[in-house]
Design a protein that fits this description.
By secondary structure, the protein is α+β, with helices and mostly antiparallel strands. The protein has 2 domains: about 5-55, no CATH class; about 75-155, Thrombin, subunit H (Beta Barrel), CATH 2.40.10.220. The protein is about 25% helix and about 40% strand. It has helices spanning about 15-20, 25-35, 40-55; strands spanning about 75, 80-85, 90-100, 105-110, 120-125, 125-140, 145-155. Strands 2-3-4-7-6-5 form a 6-stranded antiparallel β-barrel. A hairpin with a 3-residue loop joins β3 and β4 (about 105-110). The longest helix is centred in the first third of the chain and has 17 residues, at about 40-55. The protein starts with 13 loop residues before the first helix and ends with a strand. The model is unreliable at about 5-10 and about 60-70 (pLDDT under 50).
Length: about 160
């Protein structure tokens, strides 16, 4: 998307879909991008398809485990961030507390139940994580503990 000509461009470009998924658009670009995508059924569908494609490139989708058993050591943390659902694509962005990390996953506390298989993006500061929900368990009133299998980690340098 040429952000200066956003009004004259009917839809976002495929490259911008990829940049958004990987957290590579700056805040101004994200605002323009989201305003269009979340109000345009065609671009919303294209974003969801692009997110699934990125996940398939690294073999993420397909193994929907229902437990949080891990063969890797977990490390406790209390970082915070934000979570977005890409497949299905939802407009909301939820605050999350990261409770533990491992080589291939994250344990999160979030205010929404997400089913196994949902493709999500977690933003922790300038780091963006693309992953798949592998479990979601009730952890209190309006609070869920979810496990994310990591697919890709990208950090912004700026």
């Amino acid at each position: 998307m040429n952000f200066e000509d956003a009004v004259s461009s009917p839809h976002v470009h495929d490259d911008d879909l990829q940049l958004y998924i990987h957290g590579r658009l700056d805040a101004t670009q994200v605002d323009v991008f989201e305003r269009h995508v979340f109000s345009c059924p065609e671009c919303k569908s294209r974003l969801e398809t692009a997110a699934r494609f990125v996940a398939q490139l690294v073999g993420l989708q397909g193994d929907h485990r229902s437990s949080d058993k891990r063969s890797e050591q977990r490390f406790r943390t209390s970082d915070t961030g934000f979570l977005r659902s890409f497949a299905p694509l939802l407009t909301e962005r939820w605050p999350v507390q990261i409770v533990d990390v491992s080589k291939s996953g994250l344990g999160l506390l979030v205010s929404v139940h997400l089913a196994p298989g949902v493709l999500v993006q977690v933003q922790i500061g300038k780091t963006f994580v693309l992953g798949e929900v592998i479990y979601s368990k009730k952890a209190g009133e309006h609070r869920f503990r979810i496990g994310i299998r990591l697919q890709d980690i990208l950090s912004r340098k700026k």
